[in-house]
Design goal:
Blueprint: H1 2-14, E1 19-31, E2 36-40, E3 43-49, E4 52-62, E5 68-84, E6 94-106, E7 115-131, E8 144-157, E9 162-176, E10 183-198
Antiparallel strand pairs: 1-4, 1-10, 2-3, 3-5, 4-5, 5-6, 6-7, 7-8, 8-9, 9-10
């Protein structure tokens, strides 16, 4: 045991101040753009997702000697509905959205402050999952996964191993509602609050 501790100690000494934190969150999903246009009978309608409940989870590796960290981030918009401005002829399809990204985290202030702002930038995958088992099933309406850019900002409250945070994220991608149709830029915004838990 003494030999094991002696071997581990130099490794820990090489990475002083390394901190690993988990950040479970809940909040609101609020799309700022429509999905695109598709034909319903003889008319063309603009489809849009509705706001819904959202959950999120972040896992961040922080180096307090530097203003940067690395974070894996997941945000999930639970079952929301897809509708048009004039309504649909039948039951609207449900949808969910999952975003999984890797981020660089920039913290301009020392970690000892009680209120600490931070900024996120990264990229990954965003996946739309549509359930068209209802009475309305538009032709070409399909599940889709796209590369996404992630930009965000937040505030951490409290110092030490446990705190709270509030965060605003925007996942930016292009979405093709109907195969062969035009792609629309998507701004899928998540507004969340949660806990920040230090594990190392």
């Amino acid at each position: 045991m003494a030999l094991l501790l002696a071997a581990v100690a130099p490794v820990r000494a090489q990475v002083p101040g390394v901190e690993f934190r988990l950040n479970p969150r809940i909040g609101l999903y609020a799309p700022l753009s429509n999905l695109g246009e598709a034909s319903i009978g003889t008319s063309v309608e603009t489809f849009e997702m509705q706001s819904s409940f959202a959950i999120g989870l972040g896992a961040e590796l922080q180096l307090p000697a530097l203003p940067f960290g690395i974070r894996a981030n997941l945000d999930y918009a639970t079952s929301t509905s897809v509708d048009t401005e004039t309504g649909l002829p039948g039951e609207a399809p449900n949808a969910s959205l999952l975003a999984l990204v890797g981020d660089l985290v920039f913290r301009p202030l020392p970690s000892m402050v009680v209120v600490e702002p931070y900024f996120l930038a990264g990229g990954g995958i965003k996946s739309y999952d549509f359930d068209t088992s209802g009475t309305f099933d538009p032709e070409g309406f399909a599940t889709e996964s796209d590369p996404t850019l992630h930009l965000g900002a937040g505030l951490d409250f409290g110092a030490g191993p446990f705190g709270f945070n509030a965060e605003l994220s925007d996942y930016i991608s292009w979405f093709e509602l109907v195969e062969g149709g035009d792609s629309e830029m998507q701004h899928d915004v998540f507004i969340t609050v949660g806990f920040s838990i230090g594990l190392l």
